C-alpha cells in the first residue's frame, strides 16, 4: 500500500499559494496603476514595459524547465525553495520602490528589470514546488488534497489581500493620494510571508526529494535530450487542453484585477469600493474552492473544471451586456463568476499532475520536473495577453491618468474588462472538453499500472 502524504505537506503547499496570492496580486491589481498614476509614466510606456517584462517572464519558464531537469539531482528540487523566494521578494520591492526624481525611461528600465530578474527565480521555485506535488502525492486522493489546498490557499490569500491591502496603503499614505510609500511597505510585508511559506514547504519536501535523488543516481539515469523533452510536452494533448483552459481562466482574472482599479476609479468613482470588491470576490472564491473539492471527489474533474469556467464566462457576458455603473450589481455578478472560477481552480493541479503521469507511463521516462515546470507557462501566457489588453487597450481608448473618461472611453473599458475575458473563456471551455480525455476511469487505470511498475522496479 502506498504511503500517504503528510497533512502538513499539503497545508504548506496551500500556504505558499496563500503567500503568492498576497504578493502577486500587487502585480495584477496595482503595478500598471502604480506606473501610470503614482510614478507618472505615460500609458504607452507602461504598456511596453508590461509587454517586455511578460515576454521575458514567458521565456524564463523554458529556461527554468531546462535548468530544473538538467541540474537534477546535483541541485535538488527542494533547494530552490530556499533561494528563489528571496530573490522574488527583493524584486517585488524594487518594482514598487519610491524612486526619486529620475526619468520615466529610467523608471521603466528599473521596474521592468526587477520584474524580469525575479521572474527567473520565481519560475524555478514554482517549478520545484509543482514537481514536489506528484513526487509526494503518489495516490489520487493525495493529489486531490494538494489541488484543494492550492485552491483554498490561493483564495484565502486573495481574501486577506482584499481586506487589508487598500486600507493599509491608504493608512500609510494618509488617504487616497499618489504616494509610493504604501505600496512599497505592503510588498515588503508580503515578501517576508512568501519566504517563510516556502521554507516550510522545504522542510516537508526535503526527505522525499533526497529519496528520489538517491534512486535517480542508483539507476544511473541520464537526462533526456531537449528535443525529446519538448516532443513529450507537445504530444500530450491532455496536458495541452488543461494548459489552454488554465491560461484563459487566469487571463480573465488578471484582466479583471488589472482593469478593476480603473473601473472603480472612473466608472464607479470610488477607490475604497475596490477594496470591498477584492474582498467579496475572494470570499466567493474561497467558498467555490470548498465546493470544488467536494465536486472533484464525486464527479469527473474535467467536467467540474469546465463547469467552473462556464460560470465565469456567463458572469462576464452578463456584465458586458448590463454595463453596470452601480457597484453592487457589478460586484454581485462577478462574485458568482469567481465562485465558478474557484471550482475550476480546485481541480487544476490534480488534472495537471494526472496528465504528467500519463506522459511518464506512455514514454517510460522521468520528466515530471520538466512537464510540471512547463505548466508554469500558464500564468506567463496569461500575463502577456492580459498585459497587452490592459496596457495597449487603455492606450487605444485614449486613457490619460487623472482625466475623466468620455462616454466612448467608458464603453471601451467595458469591452476590455468584460467582453474580452468572456471570449477567451469560451475557447478554454472548448479546449478542456475536446483535448483532455483523461476520464476518472482512465486515471484509475493509470494508477494501477504505475503501482505495478513501481513494484516491478523495486
Structural class: mainly alpha
Strand content: under 5%
N-to-C series of helices and strands: HHHHHHHHHHHHHHH
The parts where pLDDT drops under 50 for at least 5 residues are: none
Average pLDDT value? 81
| Strands, total number | 0
Helix content: over 70%
Distance between the termini: 13 Å
Count every helix, treating DSSP H or I runs of 4 or more residues as helices: 15
Oligomeric state of the chains? single chain
Written description of the protein model:
- This protein has 458 residues and is mainly alpha-helical.
- It contains 15 helices and no strands.
- It has helices spanning 7-38, 43-71, 80-95, 104-136, 140-173, 181-218, 226-234, 237-266, 271-298, 301-322, 327-363, 368-374, 377-396, 407-435, 440-457.
- Helix 3 runs antiparallel to helix 4 (104-136).
- The model has no long low-confidence stretch (mean pLDDT 81).
Q: Briefly, what is this?
A:
This protein is mainly α. The protein has helices at residues 7-38, 43-71, 80-95, 104-136, 140-173, 181-218, 226-234, 237-266, 271-298, 301-322, 327-363, 368-374, 377-396, 407-435, 440-457.
Name the features:
globular; 15 helices; single chain; mainly alpha; 458 residues
Layout of helices and strands, plus pairs?
Blueprint: H1 7-38, H2 43-71, H3 80-95, H4 104-136, H5 140-173, H6 181-218, H7 226-234, H8 237-266, H9 271-298, H10 301-322, H11 327-363, H12 368-374, H13 377-396, H14 407-435, H15 440-457
Helix pairs in contact: 1-5, 1-6, 1-8, 2-4, 2-12, 2-13, 3-4, 3-6, 4-6, 4-12, 5-6, 5-9, 5-11, 8-9, 8-11, 8-13, 8-14, 9-10, 9-11, 10-11, 10-14, 11-15
Amino acid at each position: 500500500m502506498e504511503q500517504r502524504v503528510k497533512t502538513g505537506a499539503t497545508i504548506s503547499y496551500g500556504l505558499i499559494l496563500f503567500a503568492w496570492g498576497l504578493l502577486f496580486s500587487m502585480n495584477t491589481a496595482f503595478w500598471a496603476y502604480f506606473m501610470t498614476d503614482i510614478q507618472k509614466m505615460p500609458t504607452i510606456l507602461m504598456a511596453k514595459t508590461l509587454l517586455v517584462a511578460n515576454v521575458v517572464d514567458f521565456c524564463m519558464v523554458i529556461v527554468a524547465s531546462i535548468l530544473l531537469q538538467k541540474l537534477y539531482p546535483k541541485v535538488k528540487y527542494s533547494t530552490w525553495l530556499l533561494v528563489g523566494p528571496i530573490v522574488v521578494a527583493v524584486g517585488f520591492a524594487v518594482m514598487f520602490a519610491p524612486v526619486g526624481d529620475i526619468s520615466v525611461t529610467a523608471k521603466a528600465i528599473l521596474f521592468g528589470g526587477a520584474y524580469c530578474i525575479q521572474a527567473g527565480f520565481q519560475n524555478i521555485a514554482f517549478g520545484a514546488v509543482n514537481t514536489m506535488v506528484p513526487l509526494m502525492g503518489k495516490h489520487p486522493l493525495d493529489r486531490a488534497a494538494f489541488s484543494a489546498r492550492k485552491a483554498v490557499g490561493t483564495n484565502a490569500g486573495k481574501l486577506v489581500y482584499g481586506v487589508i491591502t487598500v486600507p493599509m496603503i491608504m493608512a500609510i499614505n494618509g488617504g487616497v493620494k499618489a504616494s509610493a510609500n504604501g505600496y512599497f511597505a505592503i510588498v515588503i510585508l508580503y515578501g517576508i510571508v512568501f519566504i517563510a511559506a516556502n521554507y516550510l514547504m522545504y522542510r516537508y519536501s526535503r526527505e522525499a526529494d533526497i529519496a528520489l535523488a538517491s534512486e535517480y543516481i542508483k539507476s544511473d539515469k541520464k537526462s533526456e535530450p531537449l528535443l525529446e523533452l519538448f516532443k513529450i510536452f507537445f504530444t500530450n494533448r491532455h496536458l495541452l487542453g488543461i494548459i489552454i483552459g488554465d491560461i484563459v481562466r487566469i487571463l480573465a482574472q488578471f484582466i479583471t484585477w488589472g482593469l478593476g482599479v480603473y473601473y472603480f476609479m472612473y466608472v464607479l468613482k470610488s477607490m475604497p469600493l475596490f477594496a470591498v470588491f477584492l474582498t467579496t470576490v475572494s470570499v466567493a472564491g474561497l467558498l467555490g474552492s470548498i465546493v470544488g473539492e467536494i465536486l472533484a471527489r464525486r464527479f469527473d474533474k474535467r467536467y467540474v473544471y469546465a463547469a467552473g469556467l462556464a460560470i465565469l464566462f456567463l458572469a462576464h457576458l452578463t456584465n458586458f451586456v448590463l454595463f453596470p455603473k452601480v457597484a453592487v450589481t457589478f460586484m454581485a455578478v462577478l462574485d458568482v463568476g469567481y465562485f465558478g472560477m474557484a471550482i475550476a481552480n480546485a481541480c487544476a493541479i490534480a488534472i495537471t499532475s494526472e496528465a504528467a503521469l500519463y506522459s511518464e507511463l506512455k514514454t517510460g521516462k522521468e520528466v515530471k520536473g520538466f512537464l510540471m515546470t512547463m505548466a508554469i507557462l500558464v500564468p506567463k501566457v496569461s500575463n502577456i495577453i492580459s498585459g497587452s489588453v490592459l496596457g495597449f487597450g487603455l492606450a487605444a481608448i485614449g486613457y490619460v491618468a487623472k482625466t475623466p473618461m468620455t462616454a466612448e472611453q467608458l464603453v471601451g473599458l467595458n469591452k476590455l474588462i468584460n467582453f474580452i475575458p468572456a471570449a477567451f473563456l469560451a475557447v478554454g471551455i472548448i479546449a478542456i472538453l475536446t483535448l483532455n480525455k483523461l476520464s476518472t476511469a482512465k486515471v484509475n487505470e493509470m494508477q494501477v499500472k504505475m503501482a505495478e511498475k513501481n513494484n516491478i522496479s523495486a
